[in-house]
Design goal:
The chain has 317 residues and is an alpha/beta fold. It folds into two domains: 152 residues, Glutaredoxin, CATH 3.40.30; 142 residues, Glutathione S-transferase Yfyf (Class Pi), Chain A, domain 2. 35% of the residues lie in helices and 7% in strands. It has nine helices and six strands; from the N terminus they run βββαβαββααααααα. Helix 1 crosses helix 7. Glutathione (GSH) binds next to loops. One of its GO terms (molecular function) is glutathione transferase activity. It comes from Kribbella antibiotica. One of its GO terms (cellular component) is cytoplasm.
Length: 317
């Protein structure tokens, strides 16, 4: 077996299997708790503007979703944002972008401090995004798929006027797409990059590009995946597409095509990039440094590529 980036998450055939999310409490309008209290007996924390802190890395596609949705819904004042350094050290995500290397609100230097305060026996990867309670310092959730859905449904009283309805009334079609895109694209690029056997890599590569071909076709004549309205699924696809040529194409060997070579997907990704709430949340420098520096089994030299030129996202023909 070749050396794996995250060995505990590789199966016997060299395929990458992502770890589960450990903290799955929710912040919910249905919580029986009063403001300032912890979760009710069903793990539901009260919705309270100003109370929770969303901890993200701007490099991370799963965290990036929550940054975009928070912005689109106008929740910036209701839920504060903590941004970790894109480069982890042996102790993981750290707040070295802040004065004194400490998150100014939580008072911690490492995200792992909040994880261990919540579960002293936690021994999995400490991941972003995570929502941390500023009253107790406990992690409420690191369940990234649920985090963005709950920003839409549970924080509705605090959305800005005119906020997009990211979740359609009938969710069946979107949920199906979300599942396919997660498996083959969002997580598919990781399955390419973290595979440790040729066959596992090729299977992930084939599924990825088959799905991108299908999405390319789907976007013919449509502005968004579900028609003419921006939805949660568009946010989820965007955070992978925006990293594609800069990282996944080279670093994860997802290189049948570049994103720029799919006419509809490229036009769609650029349309989203230029939509309020998207482009301003993209930090290519942090994205590239995170992947190329921290995955030292894939890129032992730690050299960060200079290209591609991010200008392609904004230039006008
Ligand atoms: N919570 C999920 C998804 C979130 C995730 O993978 N975040 C990455 C950054 S993109 C992370 O925090 N990784 C920390 C690590 O690998 O130690 C997981 O456990 O895989």
């Amino acid at each position: 077996m070749r050396r794996a980036q995250f060995g505990a998450e590789n199966g016997s055939n060299g395929e990458w299997k992502r770890q589960g999310n450990r903290f799955t409490d929710r912040i919910s309008r249905a919580s029986d708790s009063s403001p300032g209290e912890g979760p009710d007996d069903q793990g539901r924390w009260p919705v309270e503007p100003g109370r929770y802190r969303l901890v993200v890395s701007l490099a991370c596609p799963w965290a990036h979703r929550s940054v975009i949705v928070r912005r689109l819904l106008g929740l910036d004042d209701a839920i504060s944002l903590a941004v970790v350094d894109p480069i982890r050290d042996e102790q993981g995500w750290r707040f070295t972008l802040d004065p004194d290397d400490r998150d100014p609100v939580l008072g911690i230097q490492y995200l792992s401090e909040a994880y261990l305060r919540t579960d002293p026996s936690y021994d999995g990867r400490v991941t972003v995004p995570a929502i941390v309670d500023t009253v107790t310092g406990l992690v409420v959730t690191n369940d990234y798929p649920q985090i963005t859905l709950d920003l839409s449904t549970e924080w509705v009283d605090h959305h800005q006027a005119g906020a997009p309805q990211l979740i359609p009334d009938d969710r069946a079609e979107m949920d199906q797409l979300i599942e396919e895109i997660y498996r083959d694209v969002n997580n598919g690029v990781y399955r390419c990059g973290f595979a440790t056997e040729q066959e596992a890599y090729e299977a992930a590569y084939d599924a990825l590009f088959a799905r991108l071909d299908a999405l390319e076709e789907r976007l013919q004549g449509r502005d968004y995946l579900l028609g003419d309205t921006l939805r949660e699924v568009d946010v989820r696809l965007f955070t992978t597409l925006v990293r594609f040529d800069a990282v996944y194409h080279g670093h994860f060997k997802a290189n049948r095509n570049k994103l720029t070579e799919f006419p509809n997907l490229w036009a769609y990704a650029r349309r989203l990039y230029q939509h309020e709430g998207f482009g301003e949340t993209v930090d290519f420098d942090q994205i590239k440094r995170h992947y190329y520096v921290t995955h030292n089994t894939i890129n032992p030299t730690g050299i960060v590529p200079k290209g591609p030129d991010p200008e392609v996202w904004t230039h006008v023909d």
